[in-house]
Amino acid sequence: MSTENITPVKNIRQMNLRLGLIKAFADDLTSFLKDERADLLDELLRRYDEEGTKSFAILLPNGQKVGQVTLPEAKAYDDITDPASLFEWAEPKDGIITDVIPAQAERKEKRINKVWLDGLLKSALETEDGQLIDPGTGEVIPGVKRFPATVKTSFTVTYSKTGREELAQAYHRGDLNSIAAGSALPQIESHKHAA
After folding, report:
1. What total of structural domains would you count in the chain?
2. Which residues pair with 36 in a beta bridge?
3. How far is residue 55's CA from residue 152's CA, in Å, rounded to a whole number?
4. Which of 59, 69, 124, 151 could form a disulfide linkage to 132, CB 3.0–4.6 angstroms apart?
């Protein structure tokens, strides 16, 4: 009987040790990545403040683009802070919808018409303290406040179709030694695609 095709039984102690080692690397890498992201975010925000740039290419030393780092678009947003006041104000202005609950024909529920409110808020004028003014009547819209765009606290990293593979190959070729010097970067496996 040939033993060439028999898969060796794995030793549980070796499997536990291997997993423990991988997890230790993953834990360290998570902390390492968090620190690197914080440093990069500081620089991205500085560049955004100075230049208004919110998207940056990830380029290999040869200039090939393999991905992109992007700050999300920060937008002001409206929040209902006092639903009862808003409802009371909206009711005489036809800003309320009445829903009939099908299972209970006698039961009706009133709610603010979201389409009406969204249209109103879109055209509303904003005061310095975030209150909104109905441009048609000049009244303060009660129960709603506009909050300014928040400071960007994160960014996204996206790769081109073959970006991860190109990065791994560049790493294994030694093209990225200058950025890896003095650090304990993990080994990245390069999986060549079959042609």
Report:
1. 2
2. none
3. 13
4. 124
Contacts of 66 (CB under 8 A, 6+ apart): 58, 59, 60, 159, 160, 162, 163, 164, 166, 167
Task: Locate the DSSP E strands across the chain.
Answer: 55-59, 65-70, 77-80, 96-100, 108-112, 125-126, 131-133, 140-147, 156-159
In a domain, 175, yes or no: yes
Q: Judge whether 172 lies within some domain.
A: yes
Tell me the pLDDT band of 194, cut-offs 50, 70 and 90. Answer: very low
Q: Which two tokens stand for residue 103?
A: 């299972």
Rounded to whole angstroms, how far apart are CA atoms 34 and 28? 10
Please indicate, yes or no, whether residues 100 and 57 belong to a single structural domain of this protein.
no
Model confidence band, residue 58 (pLDDT cutoffs 50, 70, 90) = very high
Residue 4: inside a domain, yes or no? no
Say if residue 129 is in the same domain as residue 173: no
H/E segment holding residue 87: helix 83-90
- For 140-158, how does the pLDDT look when each residue is reduced to its tens digit (9 = 90+)? 999 999 888 776 778 999 9
Band the pLDDT of 180: cuts 50, 70, 90.
low
Q: Does residue 86 sit in the same domain as residue 137?
A: yes
